[in-house]
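Bench log, entry 3. Co-assembly request; chain sequences pasted below exactly as received.
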Amino acid sequence: MLSQQIINALSQGAFYALFAAGLTLIFGVLDILNMAHGAVFMWGAMLSWYLMSTLGVSFGFALLITIVFCGLMGLLLEHAAFRPLRGRSSGHLPPIVSSLALSIVLVHVAEKIFGTRVVRYPDDAVPFTKYVDVGGAQVSMLHVVLMIVALVLMGALWYMVARTRLGRSIRALQENPKVARLMGVDVDRTIAWMFVIASVLAGIAGVFLGVAYNSASPYMGHWVDLKGFAVIILGGMGSIPGALLGGLLIAFAEIGTVVFLSSDYRDAAVFVVLVGMLVLKPSGLLGSSREVRA
Amino acid sequence: MYHCNISMPGSGRRQLRRIGAAVLSVVLAGAAAMPAAAQGTDAITSAKLGAVYAFSGPVAIYSTTIKNGLDMAVSELNAKGDLKIDLVLEDDRSTKDDAINVYQKFIQRDNALLIFGPLIGGQVFAAGPLAQKAKVPVMLTSVATPGVTGIGDYVFRTSVESATIIPATVKAAKEQLKTARVAQIYTNDDQFSVGEFKAYDGALKAAGIQIAGVETVRTGDVDFSAQLTKIKALNPDTLVISSQGQEAVGIMTQARKLGLDKVRFIGGNAFNAAGVVKEAGAAMEGALSATPWFLSMEHPKNVEFVKKYREKYKSDPDWLAVQTYDAVHIVKQALLAAKITKGDSVAVARTKLRDSLAAIKSYDGVLGKIDFDDKRDPRVAGAVVKVEGGKHVIVK
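Structure output for the full assembly:
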């Protein structure tokens, strides 16, 4: 049974990591907590459900449309909630409030369009629904696919940041936005791209979580936001491998609590681990401690 | 906040007619030189009632049929033309906070004589004391949590308490499924589910059935694999599920996928919802639950109700529609018997309605014969049902 629990934790962790990757990208570079990340994630799940169940679109095509849609939503998010506040030396609070406001709007729009109930995906539309028996453990192919997708996407994200031109701009921005601008980095464009990438990751996480647990609702973003923040704090804010590690660690903490303690404390475990990390290493597992700039 | 007034079509014209009638009666009274009747002793012609349910949010799955039950009863009763029920409908988004807000609105702003709802026990424990303190009668039509009428003597309900029918499910499970060793799983942040869990716990122990383990989930959870894997290791023959519908569906479908394919499910109120059976699909086959009411019950009032409901809504009613429908009828009966006059203040009218409701000790409704005990809780015979071929059938 332990092997089954490890598999349960791995698939849960892969999902947390995928969700948190976008969050950590934005936070690491811009020092902004994007409170609307969960809302975009929810839109990914709800839109793909709508496409598959109401319009009868195939899974692959629905995923593609959702990716494009969530990318555009990231663009909207950046233009509506963050760009107007940039350059105002008003600290961290305004972007948190404006993105929180936008996330409320996004949830309400979803309520109006999709309804307020928990929805289930049509059985025949979801691929990889088979379960395979691996040494007594039931492994869902869908969860395996989710794990692979999460790993590949996070690898690609890491590569993008470390090796590409856009990544260089992002890193320059992270060092010092003013100098980056002086050196010819198009700051607005770079930030817009970051939001597009982060939102696409959130959307993909939404689609996969939706189909993997066959459940989606306009309110599914709330708890994920909270877990996502825990993951990036644990993993080290701004670190992409940290998000992966943090996601896995939180999933193992949760499931370990269920197995060895009691399911009563499942959610509490996450935050016990979090507080422990803050005491021992405030910058997170793979985070570099930020020096205060003059 | 969504707000819709359920009013009869053409009420504007009726108002005109009423004004016309008033003018005419004054003229006639003047012509006959008779003193006009004292305003204070006239019986009221309409009563404003509030209804608050979860039309959005995680438990909104239950509220569609409730709204149908309300609509149907109100339009039928208002067609009689004696005392018009003016029902104000509000959404609490499945939250305690909004249930409290709406209660305050009904009590202070709308001057409602009675409040129907809210949907679930946790909300009632939060909002109910406000009504009790303000002496406003409350009629619950969905809350099956034990002890809600303990909030005070202004709280009534037509919803049958889980605890009173859960022993019937355990008995049926023992006889029909040969249940001997169970595991329990329940939602530990939901009063209703905790109440059901405790009722099951007591009934199982009383029946001498071994409880191998207990796991918990939280409202809104979607991943139950860790708990179910743990339960699988305990090897129970039956899993007792005490949760709302959304989680129950997830638990049952994931249990099957994790290889708990021989385990039978027994559950509480959530199992009785047609939506839950549909969404859980094949995973729920053979599941048992007790219900205060069932579609194919044969007493004449039920047969007639089911027929009318199907004609109107092109779907089947559930127990919530029935409890709500009966509740509106009981309230109307109490309103007529209360002899509330136009001169009565809202406070007096509310107290008269309460006393009149408390005087109704039994009612022959769609639910069957309902007896109200001294705690204002309903007792009905009910039935144990089983999911067979994706449909509920009565267990004989």
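Chain B touches chain A through 31 residues (CB under 8 Å). The radius of gyration of chain B is 23 Å.
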